[in-house]
Model the fold of this input.
Amino acid sequence: MSKTLQNIKLAVDAIVFGYQQNELNVLLIKQKFDGDTDQWALPGGLVQNEESLTEAVNRELLEETGIQLQYLEQLYTFGDQLDRDHRGRVVTVAYFGIVNPKGMEPAAGSDADEAHWFPISEVPILAFDHTKILDVALTRLQAKLNYQPIGFDLLDEQFPFSDLESLYRTILGKEIDRRNFRKKILSFGILEETNEKRKIGSGRPATLFKFNKNKYKELEQEGFSFEIKFA
Amino acid sequence: MSKTLQNIKLAVDAIVFGYQQNELNVLLIKQKFDGDTDQWALPGGLVQNEESLTEAVNRELLEETGIQLQYLEQLYTFGDQLDRDHRGRVVTVAYFGIVNPKGMEPAAGSDADEAHWFPISEVPILAFDHTKILDVALTRLQAKLNYQPIGFDLLDEQFPFSDLESLYRTILGKEIDRRNFRKKILSFGILEETNEKRKIGSGRPATLFKFNKNKYKELEQEGFSFEIKFA
Done:
């Protein structure tokens, strides 16, 4: 063990993605107490002595943005770059999550001056190493799309297949092979065709689908892995 | 930010798996300075002020076991259970890796009384929350087998196919469908048949295979995902 007293602070940061039809956003704040920079940053702050890491990240998020998520997943702990915070050594445990931001208007709280959703393509250079952290989170989110049906929580309960396509195209940031995608997704048996149709644009009304969570859970327990390959 | 001074210590722990023909081991130590327990634990300790997390875990591992790994991967940061260490609040960043332990005899160093490889099936109840941490690491290792060719580093450069089968069977802790496994692995094109054969037991000599790392890297860049399903 170290002979000298440990002088390392522990923080948490939250990368909250918001997805709405054709747009991927991320939640950013301007810190009130960081006088010498005018930069945007991820919501986050120091862990308190009597709270768990999970409690800490949820508290910081609520305090700084007014937003709460049902579930944040631990992403990675950033502690290899010793000077990542100019105020002293801080190791941060990053968490990420994704929500449908409809009705979730950020409200800058006690610790933040401003809080906003930024389209991913318009994110400015962030404070500290937050640009790198956001990049790691985005890569993880994209990877997860390939093996977990996270996307379904972001759509309406009943949706035309094209909405699911848009979601994948938007988050992955590239075109997908629509025919293979449809074939693959439907082959899993986790989507149910409903009797409803919706008129979109000038074409024929599109069949609406529904995600069958029970079927997915069943398959998951059998060792099923939701796997989509994009050429 | 917290109004009171933060009083949380930051540690690292290493879960080092050793694989040899038909046996999965994990590296454990007995701590010298933990007077009131006689329990085995994972190698690890507090992070020093001037070292990165990666440096810390490698240093602790070397100090306590004499063993060094080329690569340790960050597993998870355990900080939700406030009393996981009875000496005060400690959050630990766990790293894991796997090696061929041939020629790697642990030598208990300055901080440890004993250091040994334990077969996974014979691991005693560990100190702190280390039983849980080991469990998370094993689950991650098993999951990785399904999408990364980690296994190949643990075999001889040329190996009969049955060695690869044993590796999967041993780490997953269950029988696998040999025929499907062989078909799937060979379909990836990342194994090369050599002209060498080896006599195993009383049967016909078995063809030896070689892992084609260049081919794997090539496929990986094309978005190939090494995916094996076990029914």
Q: What stands out?
A: Chain A touches chain B at residues 1-2, 4, 6-10, 33, 45-50, 52-54, 74, 76-77, 79-82, 89, 91, 93, 111, 146, 223-225, 227, 229-231 (CB under 8 Å). The radius of gyration of chain A is 20 Å.
